[in-house]
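Annex B.
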Amino acid sequence: MPPLFNNLHHVCIVVRDLEKTVAYYESLGVGPWFDYPKKGTYLEFDVPNKAASDAMRYKCCDLDNVQIQLCDPGELDSPQKRFLDERGEGVYHLGFEVADRDAAEAHGRALGLGVVARGRRMDGSGFCYFDTRDKAGIVLEVRKS
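Glyoxalase: predicted structure tokens.
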């Protein structure tokens, strides 16, 4: 099986003020920014707090080599909100593109990685956030778009 964390897709930064942060990046010439396209219904959607997940706001920017995602977690309890409260603004996770979401999740579990959140759609797309904070310093995500 290919390495799980080989094809970096995005860097997700948790911020307090989405509009202010986007404006700052734009002042540096980084953009354009777009709303994260939440697409499709999940067959499986296992997150710590669905209401908090639904309320999160994201802005994204595609650079030549990677996407930047800015996340405003809102006020409801979530891992992202706890990260912001405990550590302040910063990189919450790295997202890696994989060919097979299910196989990647199984591979991560076989490596002993705990799962923070996961979602799978009918077409096989989706995500899995592994709890790698203690040893990697951040969450590592696998995703198939």
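The mean pLDDT is 95. The first helix runs from residue 18 to 27. Further annotation is deferred to the next reporting cycle.
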